[in-house]
Amino acid sequence: MLLWKITQPIFAGEMFHMSNGPLTQTIAAATVAADHILSLSNLPPEADTLKNTATEFNTSLRPQLLEMQSRVLATAGSATTALTGVQTDIIDNKGVPDPTVRTEIVRTLTSVQAELVSLVSMTKAADLATDEYYEKVTAGSRILSALSGGLDAQRNGMQMQLQSAQAEVASIKDKMKYYGILGLAGLPGLIAMGVLLSKANDNVNEASGRVRTLDNQILQIDQTLLAVRAMQADFQNLSTSTLSVKNATEFVFADVDHALSDVEHSTGPIAILYITTALNELQTLANDAS
User: Fold this and answer.
1) 276 pLDDT higher than 90
2) What's the sign of the alpha-carbon dihedral 176, 182, 184, 190?
3) pLDDT in tens, 137-159
4) CB of 189 within 8 A of CB of 175?
5) Over the stretch 66-116, which tens digit does the pLDDT of each residue have?
6) Got the DSSP string for 49-115?
7) Half-sphere exposure of 221 (CA within 13 A, CB side)
8) pLDDT attached to residue 219
9) Residue 16, SS3 per DSSP
């Protein structure tokens, strides 16, 4: 006699619950990183795509991942209950279930398989979407890195101009002092040198102002870049988590599929091995998705 049979849809049961596991932690970290990017102000136009990506994560990818997580945990729980019942039935029948028991086992495994087909599709989509967001953040990081490098080069060139202008001012002052002491330049000469000195000082002020502007721009870009690289690392961790969930779901599906095939086409002794493996993998799946 069957110890377990389907009396309600497989998805209805739930044994596993969300906890502060790998997927929960990586979703939370990515959310914090995205919110931090959105909180930054006065960003360069090059950072607009990153802000858009952060917004899209909060409004699109994050809800998708949370829905996937909930579905995975629910299915892992109900599938564990179903497969444990099948395992017990096969063991009780010494691996050779009679036709009635076999029919019920096939029905149960078919229902589990149907839920897993849907879940495989959902986890694949979530993993692909996460990878796409990671690539967007990585591309944005490269753009800001190139921008920072370009500003650094401009700043170095402007610093050289500033030093040259400062040297010119110092040279003119020395000449004015020297010629003034010796009385060689005369009043017209001193006036001409004063004009040169004024222009040289203007060059110093202009170069100094541009250096300060570039310093401020570089500081802002570098601060943004730190935040973006942090988000990049968090999205990479999130991508790893979703990949683990996807792979674990596919492993469970493959074992259930093999078990169903064995029960349908033989006496079922090998099915018990696949079911036992699937039960272990369901625990891994629940842990990865927690």
Assistant:
1) yes
2) positive
3) 999 888 888 887 877 777 777 77
4) no
5) 999 999 999 999 999 999 999 988 888 776 677 888 889 999 999 999 999
6) HHHHHHHHIIIIIHHHHHHHHHHHHHHHHHHHHHHHHHHHHHHHTTT---HHHHHHHHHHHHHHHHH
7) 22
8) 82
9) coil
Q: Cβ(179)–Cβ(172) under 8 Å? A: no
The single-letter code of the amino acid at 157 is G
Token duo for residue 237: 């961790």
Length of the chain in terms of residues written? 290
Share of the chain above pLDDT 90, in %: 47
Helices 22-39 + 186-265 axis angle, to 10: 150
- The pair of structure tokens assigned to 16 is 């596993």
| Residue type present at position 173 | K
Encode burial over 2-32: b for 16+ CB neighbours within 10 A, e otherwise: bebeeeeebbeeeebeeeebbbbebbebbbe
